[in-house]
Structure formats: structure tokens, C-alpha cells
Amino acid sequence: MSNDTVAALHFRNTGSKGCVRPHRIALVCVGMLLVVSAIWLMQWDWVPKYSSAIAYGVWLTLVMLVVSCGLGFVLSVPIGLVQVAGPWPLARLARSYSNIIRGTPLLLQLWIIYYGLGSVLPRYPGIRGSVLWPYIREAWPYALVALVVSFSAYAGEVMRGAFAGVPRGELEAGRAFGMSRWTVFRRIWFPRAVSRVLPTLGGETVLMLKGIPLVATITVPDLYGVFSKVRQETFIIYEPLLLLALIYCCLTGIIVGLFRFFESKTPARH
Amino acid sequence: MNDKTDAIQVSEIRKSFGSIEVLKGISLSAREGDVVAVIGGSGSGKSTLLRCINMLELPNSGSVTIQGETIAMQDDGAGGIVPADRKQIERMRSRLAMVFQSFNLWQHMTVLENVIEAPIHVLGVKRDEAIFRAEELLRRVGLYEKRASYPAYLSGGQQQRAAIARALAVKPYAMLFDEPTSALDPELVGEVLMVIGDLVKEKRTMILVTHEMKFARNVASHVVFLANGNIVEQGPPEQIFEAPETDQLKRFISSIH
Amino acid sequence: MNDKTDAIQVSEIRKSFGSIEVLKGISLSAREGDVVAVIGGSGSGKSTLLRCINMLELPNSGSVTIQGETIAMQDDGAGGIVPADRKQIERMRSRLAMVFQSFNLWQHMTVLENVIEAPIHVLGVKRDEAIFRAEELLRRVGLYEKRASYPAYLSGGQQQRAAIARALAVKPYAMLFDEPTSALDPELVGEVLMVIGDLVKEKRTMILVTHEMKFARNVASHVVFLANGNIVEQGPPEQIFEAPETDQLKRFISSIH
Amino acid sequence: ASAEQVHVGFAAEPYPPFSSPDASGNWSGWEVEFMNAMCDAAKLDCVITPIAWDGIIPALTGGKIDMIVGSMTITKERKKSIDFSDKYYSAPPGIVGAKDLKFDATPGTLAGKVIGVQVGSIHYAYAHKHYEPAGATIRDYPTQDEANNDLLAGRIDATEMDRIAISTFLKTEQGAACCELKGMVEFDPEVLGEGVGVGLRKGDKELKSKVNAAIAEIRKNGTYDALSKKYFDFDIYGG
Amino acid sequence: MADVGVFSWSLLAFQPPGWGGVLLAGFAQTVQIAIGGYLLGLILGLGGAIGKLYGGPVARDLLEVYTTLVRAVPELVLMLILFYGGTDVLNKLSALAGYGSINVNGLAAGIFVIGVVLGAYATEIMRAAIQAVHFGQIEAARAYGMSPGLIIRRITLPAMLPHAIPGLSNLWLTAIKSTSLLAVVGFTELMLVTRQAAGATKAYMLFFLAAGVLYMLITHVSNFLIGLLERHYSRGIVGAAK
Ligand SMILES: Nc1ncnc2c1ncn2[C@@H]1O[C@H](COP(=O)(O)OP(=O)(O)OP(=O)(O)O)[C@@H](O)[C@H]1O
Ligand SMILES: Nc1ncnc2c1ncn2[C@@H]1O[C@H](COP(=O)(O)OP(=O)(O)OP(=O)(O)O)[C@@H](O)[C@H]1O
Ligand SMILES: [Mg+2]
Ligand SMILES: [Mg+2]
User: Could you name the domain of life of the organism this protein comes from (chains B, C) (predicted)?
Assistant: First the structure.
């Protein structure tokens, strides 16, 4: 470690991105070796049998991800905004909401909503006969509610920082041109805030993806559920977990790639 | 000179932050085509005055009249005043264009988008037309080549020129400049002053806070010297710079080079 | 004058960034007590030259001698050179004190802590003694009252003065100043120039990159004009400012006010 | 030397009347007493180690525990990864459902119904094999307890569990109020297996023979019947 | 069924048959694992960050693989892999070395798993924080002849702290919450005892809410302490500490 690497790192950042440097080749070889030996030495005969179940699990996980992040984000905007610019009772409310949700594990929230609330609800007379009953008795609505609530709290915190971080001067410039409050919000505050925190939101989305397996504990058969089924039925211990990890890596890669794409559409910060 | 109407009239503006009174009853008027230069030490309240004129800062008392129309204010019930009609304020502001010391360009828009934003979304100009005019303005301030760049990639001087183009795009009735060159490298000051000099030749009404005394002297039709929230002296530039009356102004002028 | 030894001697320094050659073989020497002012347009390589002198930037070729001791370099096997002995470089650097354009004060330390840091941790001075000396220095630059403040709470001029005190605290053999006033408000420039002027009176060896021509002229014993990575002209200030020979220098001098 | 320590894996979730922890952290239930008797007979120093059911087999193969006493049925599939002792009880499974719904344990009548089962149990395997193809929806619960709870709440129509668990459930006030035994399922040896045995690491021959000997001994000397009487009014060992 | 909506608070008594004592014991376990895992994560993170910034190319690539993988795979899956796979590998190794199977202490295993997961996040947080330190400050240190080790110790680390504290404090809250996942591998922490208590007494809502209160308690106390820390370490940063 020389002085000058320190300097070079700060200046060059990621100047040379060559994948063909010798040590990379060696690393890739080691990696390939691991993969090949995993394929050879481990047991993969169960994969074809479950492939359609896995595909369905991926689809279900993605649907839950998109819906919960989408709705959660929509909720997060007012949650973040009122904390920055809202009247204090609303700001307090949003603050407590965000603190409570972020202060307790998602697993606990899922259980409270499904086993706790869900077992209290049916005891109210009339509910079983209502048109909503077919949904209330399913597990996925509870999962979705818990995920949306969770995402809205985390993203709300991100958006709070984002709104607060937009330089006041730019908002004032908007007002100085006679923009109405709504126009300032729509044209400047919101897009500017979002463009600043796209990477962070990307990170939150990955976290959400990784939180989804917990819904398997309330009987929603997501991707993780499919694999625990595989494990229970075949009694193969590690192989399903490894494949599952691989699939999650791919999904994460896709999410990260998507956010990179959006980021490239917005101007850099520096 | 008396046949010109008052473009901007500020009367008895007072403004406190907490217990500190920053403006202690300032009155000021600029007729059409006037260039009023506001000078004064750091912290004397120059920026605050400018910001009170377009109500980015609400004065505690006093009134502002633009082009004969007084901004309606009402008591806020706590000893201060608040605008009575937000729509009026928005309309007024769209007639005054402000150029900030720190540019305040919208970082998420290209230079061109910055310039067409207010015409389209405030004045309701059609997009094509706004672009046409914006390109003309950018050519004029020498930024046509940079129209597709984001502000972060421009030098300070270029950013300031973009901010001026953005201000001009709303065809403002009057312009407010807050130290348009103080955030710039000495080498970039020149180009911005040149652009402002052009505007002066066009006889645009302007209120200009500046540290560049030489420039103020050359372009201003009227100079106002602010100290401790009061107008200590005002008059034509020759008088202010060559025959300062008060000690305060004399000290101030000698301290600047 | 010839009996003075060479304090800093730079010979045939070349430096490229990628394919652009920024310094094209610069030689320069400062004798003890000399004040060398380096002037030149933006991008002419002034900062790079200064940074090469204390090896913050590694030159591609050439050598630097401080107080008679040449910094040992060796081939890096890729056509460039690298320091042969890191300890030597660290020792050399502790004799040269650099004052940066952007101050570069350590933000997590108070002014006093900034000033005592290098004496204690590089020179091994005892804490009490370092504090004693630091307070003296801070008094001298007029910052004694601010010794317990963090840099972020100081004005630009105060920060620059703190940076100068920090540099003086290592009892440097020579000082390198990189545009010590260009990041400052016009009003703050004065106070920093005054402190530097004091150092000049003490006959401290200095290399000074500056945009303040008037100042350069008053304090420098020798002026070097850089353009495109070459020394285009050098000599005593009177000659450089009053009788420039090359067109380039003439143009440069006329462009600065 | 005195007896060596043996870590006995118990499913961490309560499974009355076989095993459930109380507030002081003591485990009680038929299976706990059985284990104690067995360990005494085999002269083993047994320590209860609760492990989530989901991970109990990896815990065994990974050496965290040395045997599983967790009402684990001996099945062909499981035998691929672990060994079993001889059986120590068996209980045929049945279907419990809400009183106001009409169906029995045959796949045809369960079409369109929602059946809850515990992940990884034989009931889980059975339901997925026989009821799902017939048109029933299977919901997988981490524990039987939660499935029962959802049955009470009306969120599932039925659950499959073994006869002993059924009788315990139907003895509770809420269980009796809402549900009834709809019928015993048709036997399928492939998934329903050969009774419940102690799970052992593959190749752990020594422990296996000790356990088998101990089970035989407590059955012979009456200890087994004595402790079973406290919990059940029928022969839990089965035929 | 009679007591719908009415909690029987006696279930929370500290002495059995109340479950309060069990809950608190689980809570203590949770806090222990969280602290242990967090400290391990910090150590890994600091090493990782320095390795990533200043290490050789191989070290940098390996660290990149570590942080990417760990951050891409759900904690639940990682825990299963590490918890079972880890002890499996350990046993095999010790068997190779001739020690026979060793029994891994559950607490140590939990701390290890949490630490490895948190380490990946801590690496990224600290790396970003180090990079956020204005380069001029490091350059100034070099200009005064400081050696690289001295620079890291005296300038980089303390200057980075204010940038790292927000991320690291979030990570601490994550640490507490992710202990709940150990319930899935049967670790007797707060979540698992909650579930046992709820299952045994059927008072689901009561125990879930009680657990929620305990989690809130610790996050609140943590937030308060973090606030103090932050104020202390962001001296010198304008507008940092409110
Ligand atoms: N939002 C605010 N809250 C509190 N005090 C303020 C605020 N804005 C300005 N001030 C104070 O009001 C005084 C005048 O500020 P103002 O910015 O108008 O000065 P200025 O003349 O523009 O100075 P400069 O030349 O340094 O820009 C200063 O003392 C400043 O600290
Ligand atoms: N690390 C670097 N990588 C690439 N190019 C660089 C680097 N540092 C400086 N340069 C380039 O070298 C040239 C000289 O830079 P230098 O900073 O020495 O100029 P300068 O004379 O100090 O200018 P100024 O007066 O604007 O500070 C410039 O064109 C600059 O873009
Ligand atoms: Mg101002
Ligand atoms: Mg420079």
C-alpha cells in the first residue's frame, strides 16, 4: 500500500475496467472450477421436476415485489414530504409511523398482521359472510399489506432525506419565477429529490426483495416457499439453497441494472 | 426623467430575523429603464432587501409595488403581514426575474430545459416557441453549444450566464440580480459583467446587488448604499463614488481596493 | 546574492496526464530567502508544478533537490520514475509546508488541533510545547480567539490563516503556496495577503502561485511566467511586469485588469 | 466413565401432547417422558436441544444434534438422508374440518377446499400427493399449531394431522365448538411410512443399536405403557 | 373466546406460569447476539473497506464478491447456508485434523452468521465514508510528511466517522432485527420464545405486541445513544447534528 495508490484511487476512481488482467483470469478460473465441481459433485436431479414450480415462485415473488414497492413508494412520498414541510401534527405522525415500522422486524409485523389481526378479524360477526371474506381468508393480502407498510416506511425515510436535501435555492428559484406550490413540487422538488436518491431506492428495493421470503412463514408460497418445499420433499440440504441463492443474485442483478439504467437517464450529481 | 413611471417601488420595508432587525424601513424606487445598484458591507441586508421585493422573504411591514400594482398584504394576526392573494404573488413574481448569487440552476434539467421551464409551466408558452426563444437567448449569452449539458458540467461563469438566460426567458418586466459575480473566479467575472452590460444597454429595469464597484459605477443610473439595515446614502454613481458624504460610505469605498 | 545556497532546485521536470503533457521540462531554483512567484493562465500547469515539488504528484522525469538533498528516484519499469525511499519523501515533505488553495484543513479537528497535529505526530514534538508554539502562531495570524473552533465555522479568510499557521507550525524550511487567496471573497483577500506579506519580511523561502499580480509584484524577488507547460519568461518583478518581452506575457498581463 | 452427553433435537414449536415447553423453559409431554425413559434405559445423558422443524434434519447431519425425537415418521424419502431407529409409536392421520362443511377424507369430496398442513410432515406429503391433484388448495404452515389456529379462524376448511393430535385438538373448547373429525385418510405406505422413529445420523450404528435396545426394553418392562396411560386412553404403539 | 380484544396480562408475569421471564431471557439473548454480531461486522467492515480501497487487486476482487453475494442473497437463505453449511464444514475440517466432531456453541454460531452478513454492509458503508472524506484533507496530511498508517489513524478514520455513523447506526438496528431470523434456525431468541409463548397460550396478539414493544424499546434507546454519538463525532461538520 503506497501513498500513491491512495492518491491514484481518489483521482482515477474506476479508470481501467479491464476484466482481462491476469489475476482476474485466475479468479474467474477458480470460480468456474467451483461451479463445475458443484455441478458434478452435487445432486441436481430434482431440478427438472420442480422447474415449473420454481418459475411460478419467481413470478410470484416478482409480482409481490413490484406491487409492494410500487404502492409503498406512492405512500412514501407524502410520508417523507410532511416530515420536511408538513404541519407538525402530520410530521409527528409520519415520524412515529416510520420509527415504529423501522424499529420492529418485518417477521414480527407479518405475524402480527396475519396471525394476530387475521385471527381476530373473523371473530367479528358478519365478516365471514361479506364479499371481502374470500380475500380476508387468503394469506397474500396480509403479506402484501405488511410489505407495502414496510417499504413505505423505509422509502419514506429515504424520501425525507431526499426532499430535505434539495438545495433551497433551487426551490426559491422556482418560486421566484412565479411557479405555484404544486408546480414547484411537480417540476422541481420531486424530480430533483428522486434523482438524488435513485441509488438508495434501488438498495431499498433489493432489501425488499430479500424480505419477501419471510412471507413463506405465513403460508404464501413465494420463491423461498417453493425451495423449502423442495428441501422438505427431497431432503437435499444444500443444493436447493445454493440454487436459490443464485436465483436471488440474478434478481438482484436485474434490479440493480434497472436502477443503473434509470440513473444513467438522470444527470450525475457531481 | 420624471415622465418615466415607477417600475418598482418599495416603501418602508422592515424585516427582522428573530430579535435582529435586518431592514429598518427601507424605501426605494426604480423607474422603467433604471439600473439601481445596491452596495454595502457583508451582512448589511442587501440580499434580504432583494428577497423582500419578490416576497421570497416576507417583510414584517411595508409594501412593494410593481408596475403600479401593489402586492396586497393582510395582517397575520401575530403582528406581521402575509400575502393576501397567493395568485397575485405568483403573477408578480413571473414579471420579476431573479438571478441568484449561487445561480440556483435546476440540476436535474439541461441548460435548455432550465431556460424553457418557466415560460412553459408558468406563462403557458408552447414548447416549440419556448425552445425557439431559449435558443436565441442562449446564443446571445454564448451558451448555445452547451444547451444540452447539465449545470453540474458547466463552469461557474457558464452557469451564471445560463441563469441570466433563464431569467430573460420569461421576458421579465424587471430583473433582480443578487451579487451575480461574487461566486465566480476573477477570470469568469468579466464574461458575466459583459452580458449584464448588454442588458443595461437595452434599458432594462434592474436592481443589482454587487461588490464590483467599478462595474456599478459604469452601469448604474442610481446607487444605494446600505449599512445596518438603513439606506445611508444614495444618488447617482458619480456623487456616491466621488463625493461620498458620510464617513461610513467613505470608509466603505476606501476599503474596497 | 550568489552566496546564498539553493534552497529548492527543480530540474527538467516533466509531467503528463494520459497523453497530455502538462509540464514540459521545467527548471527553477529558489535560494534561501527568495520569494518566487509563479504566474500564468488557468491550466498552464502551475498547481501541477507545485505538487511535483513535494511529490504529491509524481513527475515523469526530472529531479527535485531540497536544501542540497536530491530526492532519490528510481525507474518504475514502465518508463516513469517512483521515489526510491518513502521515508526520505516523508522527511522532505515535513520540511516543506504547503498551503492549499482550498485550505484543506482537517474538519474533525479544532483550529488548535490542526496546528499541533503535524508537530506532534510527524516531528515528535511534545504536546505542551506544540500547544505553546501553536498559540503563539495563532496569535500572530490573529486567530487566537478561534483556536477552539472547528474549521467549518470559520470564514474563508480565517480558514486560510489557520492553514498558514498550520504550515508555519512545522517550522518549514520553505513554504509552497498554491493560490492562497483565489477561493476567498475580495474582502478576505486582504487579510491573507497581509499575513503572507509578514512572512516575506521574515525572509522565508517561498514559492507562491498567485493571481494577484499587484501582490506578486510587491513581494516577489523573482517571477516565473508559465504557459502551456513551459517557462516562457522569468526575471525580477519589475522586468516581468514593466518590460514583458514575449507577446504571450504581454497579452496575459493586459488581460488581468 | 459416566454416560456421554447426547443432544436430542426437539422441534422448537409446541406440539401437544407430545412436546411443549412451559414458561419456565421445561419441556413436557408424552414424547419428553418417552425420551427420558429411553435414555435412562440406554444409560445416555440426554440434553434437549430445540431446533426449528424446518432445519432439524440439517442440524442432525451437521452434528448439532445427535438424534431427533420429534414425532418423525419413518419414510423412504427421509431414509435417504438419515437413519431411523425402530418405531416407537404410530398414529394414523385423519382429516379435521369445520362442522358446517360437508366432506370426508376422500380426495373427491375435498375438491375446492383449502387444507392446511405442517411443512415437511407426512401430512404435508400426503396432502400434496393425494388432495392437491384432486383440486384442493394446500396451505403450508410452519407448525401444526398455526394451521389449527387458522382452522378455528375459518381461514382454512380442513387440516390433516395424526389421530392423537386430532383428539387433543377436539378436546379443546374451541376445537370442539368449531370442528369435527371428518374421517381417517386412506393408507399410503409410501408417504405415511412405518410409524414414528428416532432420527439418527447415517452410520451412527452404535447409537442406533443402543436406542433400539432401549425401546425394546422399556416396552418390555412396562415403562412405556405406564407413561402412555397418563396421556392416552388407547394403545399408541399401534399394530 | 370470551376474552376477545381483552388481554390476559397475567400471561406476562415474570414468574412461571407467566411468560414474562422467558420473553426477557430471549430478549437478552437477542441483544447479546446483536452486539456480538455487530462488533464482528464492524471489524470485518473496517478491514473490508481498507482492503477494498487500498488493497491489492486480488483482495479487492474477492471483497467485491463477498459484498455483492452477501448483499444479494436474502439473509434467511444465507443463515441457513452459513448455519448448517458452516458447522458442517467446520466439523469436516476438525475431523480431517483428527479432533472428531465439535459442538459449535449456538451463540457463537449466531454471532458468526450475523457478523458475516453485517460485515458486507459495513464494508460498503465505511468505504463510502472514507471516500466522502475530502481528498484535500488526506493530501494535506501527505504534504506534512505523514506516513500512510498515520494518515489512516489520525485523519482518514476520524474524518470518516461522521459520514459513517448514520449508515452504521442503521446497521445496528438491522443487526437487532436480523436476529429475529435466527428463530428460523431454532435459535432461542426473542422471536422464537414469542412464538412458543403464543403457541402455548394461544394469546398471539398479546405476545406479538409484547415482542414489538421490546424491539421498540431497544431501537429507541439505541437511537438516543446514537444521537449522542453522532453529536460528538460530527463536531466540525456544519448542520450535521441537530
Ligand atoms: N433566514 C435568516 N435567518 C436569520 N438571519 C438571517 C437570515 N437571512 C439573513 N440573516 C441575517 O440577516 C443579515 C443580513 O443578511 P443579508 O444576507 O441580507 O446580507 P447581505 O448584505 O446580502 O450580505 P452579503 O454581502 O454577505 O451577501 C445577516 O446578519 C444575516 O446573518
Ligand atoms: N490529476 C489530473 N489528471 C488529469 N489531468 C490533470 C490532473 N491534474 C491536472 N490536470 C490537467 O493539467 C493541466 C494543468 O493543471 P493545473 O492544475 O496545474 O493548472 P493551473 O495552472 O494550476 O490552473 P489554475 O490556475 O486553474 O489552478 C490542466 O489542463 C488540468 O486539466
Ligand atoms: Mg447577500
Ligand atoms: Mg491551480
Answer: Bacteria
